[in-house]
Amino acid sequence: MQYNVIKLDSVDSTNLWARKNLSELKNFDVISADIQSNGHGQFERKWFSSSNNGGNIYLSIILKPDNIEHLNELTRYTSLIVSNVLKKYDLSPDFKFPNDVLIKGKKISGILAESVFVGSNFKGVIVGVGINLNLDEIELKNIDIEATSVFAETGLMINKDKFLTEFLNEFFDNYDEFIKNGIEELTYVK
User: According to a count of CB atoms within 10 Å of the terminal CB, is the N or C end of the chain lower?
Assistant: First the structure.
């Protein structure tokens, strides 16, 4: 499945940028930023952002499906995709549903899916994803909850572009099956 990555150096929030530009954005456009000045998660909780040490993942995926039957499972689907990629780095992810991925009880990723309607017309959904790749111990102390990063867990600096490609490929390789049948039918979950 073909997707298009729009790379931004700095943005207030990839989800806010996507919402402002949704009418011009296409299905499967991905907005990726090196840093967010005002990233947020569920309940408007601030998402700490840093581009040090090779950076982290701050992105929003634009989806405009015809079938919206399973959209309520989209955050969980995305959490499972993040988990599958983290497993490639010898990590053992767990979940705090609906929107957090944890390692040893510490948050490593958050997902925020926001549906956009104009009146009763569905215009799309924006799936925001933050993944702590290369935050060090000092930066992790800036987060108001217990958090970790791939670097903090493995000691390895992670190539952000490689990780981003792995994540997006996994997300879109399974997306059609998910949107058609929902999360329970995905073979990689079983």
Answer: C
Q: Which of 147, 149, 145 is nearest to 86 (CA)?
A: 149
Cis before 98? omega within 30: yes
In this prediction the pTM is 0.90
In the predicted model, what is the mean pLDDT of residues 64-80? 93
Q: Where are the beta strands (DSSP E) in 42-175?
A: 57-63, 93-96, 100-103, 106-118, 121-131
What's the CATH number for 4-185?
3.30.930.10
Q: Where are the domains of the chain?
A: 4-185
Q: Per-residue confidence at 173, pLDDT binned at 50, 70, 90?
A: very high
Asked whether the beta carbons of 122 and 68 are under 8 A apart, the reply is yes
Residue by residue, DSSP assigns 3-16 as -EEEEEEEES-HHH
